[in-house]
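Supplementary Note 3. Input sequence used for the single-chain structure prediction.
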Amino acid sequence: MLHTLRKRYDSALALLPSFPLRSKNALRGALREGYSRGDLRADVLAGLVVGVVALPLSMALAVASGVAPQHGLYTAIVAGAVIALLGGSRTQVSGPTAAFVVVLVPIAERFGVGGLLLATFMAGMILVGLGVARLGRLIEFIPHPVTTGFTAGIAVVIATLQLKDFLGLHVEHFPEHYPERVAALARAMPTARPAEIGIGALTLALLLFWPRVNKRIPAPLVALAAAGVAAALLGRLGPDFEVATIGTRFSYLVDGTARPGIPQLPPMPGLPWRFPGPDGQQLTLSLDLIRQLLPSAFAIALLGAIESLLSAVVADGMAGTKHDPDTELVAQGVGNMMSPIFGGIAATGAIARTATNIRAGARTPIAALVHALFVLASVLALAPLLAHLPMAALAAQLLVVAWNMSEAKHFVHTLRVAPKSDVFVQLACFSLTIVFDMVIAVTAGVILAALLFMRRMAEISGGRLLEGHHEDLREPLPPGVALYRIAGPLFFGATQKAMSSLDAISAKTRAILLDVTDVPVMDATGLVSLESALERLMKARVVIFLAGLQDQPRRLLEKAEIAPIDGQLLFFDSVEEAAARARAQFAPAPPASTRPPSSTRPPR
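The predicted structure, written as discrete structure tokens, is reproduced below.
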């Protein structure tokens, strides 16, 4: 059976275009290495565990994103399966994540479910493009303070959004911006309902303390089941006890009749723009709509790329594997294109579910595929029961997710030990994420980090003018010969500092040894500055010995057609060779020797 599975998968994958996906696909690699019954058993058990965790969490994340809970389930089913089959990470689990909430809520409010699904489809196309262009490694250039800052900011926003259902508050309209949301929640505090608070507190307590009792049974399964049972029992015992549930909050249509809860059906295909817009009517696909959704699509793609590759790195560290970032981006893109066709929202690699998958013993992407099949089976078999889950219980689960996502201890530790510039970047990203959005935060954070990096490089770059004897030279330089040493990258942020000391060369200087041994790279600004310095020195009739060019600066000078000029500009591989030539050319001539008087033969 396993041999047949392996053969069919290879045949299907061979039909795909020759993206990085074909050669570095994680599932294909695992099957080729040999897949035993023991591996299958481990993957199935791990997939079932993750499926139990993903089932309520997918509904909670969909609700938090402003859509019906079944859209989150469809995301876990479709995107979870597609990305597992095509991805570049062996143990990563993909699906809806908390990080997307702050990005998806404004889209859902403004454009409705149809607009959200269309933006997700467009984001998938962008992700495929990033992967095909092999830009997966560029995510590594996003500094740690940036990711820490916006992740903690997202956690704060998610936690704030859950207070409404956790406390049972009645809020007429949730404003778009965070300060107004906080104000709206504060005004609604008198409407808090003890029943909702009690169910939420019960769920929260079980989520936090159950792992100390039993780690083999997932805490969400116990906590949410207990909350549902408690709400049902208390509702029967006390007629005044009433809490909002999935069934009372959401409904779906069957033959024109509204039914509570989620549909007991598998995800069905359909065009994303055929889903309802903000007014409940079908969207009209147009160039103007695509233009309006394009910034949101880029936001989804950027966050999806960052989250999925960060999750893959975590998975590699836990499982001892190695993922391929470009293949993973292509898979994430295809998954986000397929998900909205079946009613799913944006998906990416989920760090918490991936960690659960690895701890449960997953060995290959089959585990993530089993997780998607488990969610599908649960929808088909348990949809009526899922309708009884209290909204306060789902909010409590997302509060725990937000807390874990914030990594508060690590956030505070970074503030305490990191350089002031990194602390500034982290706090800026944190604040901008809360007040504005993640895209502004990441953009500003990367720009700030880049500027601070350039300042640091400029600080360690520079030049020194040395004359006479120097410790790095075996013999002193002749009079009138100076050594000018440039250290560090010669780029636009450091060029002025590195070349400024050349202006201090005295009129008596006949030659200069320009040591660029410690210049690993040079950009166009550095090249122009060096050209100007060489031209100025040659006009002053100073002979230049350029020594120690590394590969990149040498290639740049060759492109600029800067070549040795006999008697004016000479190139040497090392400073010692240049110094030897300078001594031979400019060493003072020895004083003229006096001939001794001719001896006379003594007389006989």
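Confidence is low (pLDDT under 50) at residues 15-22. DSSP finds 23 helices and nine strands in the chain.
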